[in-house]
């Protein structure tokens, strides 16, 4: 991949996907089981509604440990205002985005269609491979 090629080859489609109405306990368990830093939250039509990150999971998990009860859904804790990258962006654009934001993943879109997630670690790995 050259620095001018698009992100299509780096987009991960094998990461977990959540729904806004999923119980938060199940979503947290999914992230832990899959060792995922975050997961896309998609509605029934497949549209991106947000991201649930490990950081987002701390509040409901701490509350559950204090009160011995899990409460809420993914929609209650997800980050709804999500920065995204277009699939037409190149690896340099992605690296700049990761430098600008502290995110570990970016959703990648083709127009309004969600394609998958781009992980910071995958961009770094590819940059190292490029030498």
Please sum up the structure shown:
This protein is of the alpha/beta class and 131 residues long. It has helices at residues 24-34, 54-67, 74-77, 91-100, 120-130, and strands spanning 17-18, 38-42, 48-53, 85-86, 105-110, 113-119. β4, α4 and β5 (105-110) form a beta-alpha-beta unit.
Write up what this structure looks like.
This protein has 131 residues and is an alpha/beta fold. The protein has one domain (7-130): CBS-domain. The chain contains 5 helices and 6 strands. The strands form 2 sheets. It has a 3-stranded mixed sheet. Helix 1 crosses helix 2 and helix 4 crosses helix 5 (120-130). The chain is elongated. The N and C termini lie close together (11 Å). The mean pLDDT is 94.
